[in-house]
């Protein structure tokens, strides 16, 4: 196993003071044009990273990159991670800009809701292709760049799952639930393999954050908040903070775990209140 980065139990004051710094590091955030992906990209930029964002809609991706460029260096790389060809193209586009990659955030996601007896194959395949297949094959495609970045620090892969992968919600989002549960276990399995290359894989399971995928939290925040122990839905700072922790030196020892960032949704009754996870787009 390759030994990369600090391994002592007592870190120097210099290391401790830079625990959450991303200065000089590169990051690629899929689904970065809006919602949780944008929250993470903003946080990375504020902490010194050079950020590339990707999303399927080129206009939205370009527009967000221009807006985020006010915070730091942000580049748009439109792409579709639901197909192997799209994954390979995105990886090639990234390589045209950078020789290595410090942080990969697999955030692009899809959801589909329909009654059990009517749930279509298209709703199954679309969600699984983006939420599971795309994560695996993009990480595979960019593994050489991630390993190249793992010199005096560890490279990071952060997979964005959902509390819906840990518990059920009231909606019939069968493929979404299954895909996020699969992603949480895939995170564990990839972590075991990739740590030997100096790449730490971990995950975040968001709860109620306002986004186009979670319209209930976006449009009925007070109602959702009333069911949460925290008494509110998540903010950009909440999501950015978790992602910065995992992406920085501070999160080096979190290997294969997926951290719920949910305001207590998983410990409330019912386990996942309405709007605590994602709803069909």
Summarize this structure briefly.
The protein is an alpha/beta fold and 281 residues long.
Q: Which key terms come to mind for this protein?
A:
alpha/beta; 9 helices; 281 residues; Rossmann fold
CATH homology-level superfamily: NAD(P)-binding Rossmann-like Domain
Number of domains: 1
Radius of gyration, taken over Cα atoms and rounded to an integer in Å: 18 Å
CATH architecture: 3-Layer(aba) Sandwich
Question: Which residues sit in consecutive blocks of at least 5 with pLDDT less than 50?
Answer: none
Mean pLDDT: 90
Output the CATH class name: Alpha Beta
Secondary structure elements and pairings:
Layout: H1 13-17, E1 26-30, H2 35-46, E2 50-54, H3 58-68, E3 74-76, H4 84-95, E4 103-106, H5 121-149, E5 155-160, H6 174-194, E6 199-206, H7 215-219, H8 221-225, H9 236-247, E7 258-261
Parallel strand pairs: 1-2, 1-4, 2-3, 4-5, 5-6, 6-7
